[in-house]
Amino acid sequence: MADLDTPAPTDTATGAREPYRVLARKYRPTGFDGLIGQEALVRTLSNAIASGRLAHAFVLTGVRGIG
């Protein structure tokens, strides 16, 4: 519960506070380049996007936070 009492860091240039985000969301990759060790997954998704044949859903499994 100590995390809830800790103030959010401020941006010194504007004085604005950054919203609190858990580390898993803060450092989550925003593109395929950030997916380290997931070449097969990146290739599958890239090929689906390039061919314009996106499936209705993709099931991506694994332990949360490790990638």
Largest sheet: none
Order of helix and strand elements from N to C terminus: HHH
Report the portion of residues in β strands: under 5%
Gyration radius over CA: 18 Å
User: Quick one: overall form?
Assistant: elongated
Average pLDDT works out at 80
User: How many angstroms separate the termini?
Assistant: 27 Å
Secondary-structure content class: mainly alpha
Number of strands: 0
Fraction in helix: 25-40%
How many DSSP H or I helices?
A: 3
Question: What is the number of domains?
Answer: 1
Q: What can you tell me about this protein's structure?
A:
The mean pLDDT is 80. The chain has one domain. The protein is built from 3 helices and no strands. The protein has helices spanning 2-5, 23-26, 39-51. The relative contact order is 0.11. Helices cover 31% and strands 0% of the residues. It is mostly helical and 67 residues long. The longest helix has 13 residues, at 39-51.
Structure summarized in a few sentences:
It contains 3 helices and no strands.
Topology of this structure?
Elements: H1 2-5, H2 23-26, H3 39-51
Characteristic key phrases:
mainly alpha, single chain, 67 residues
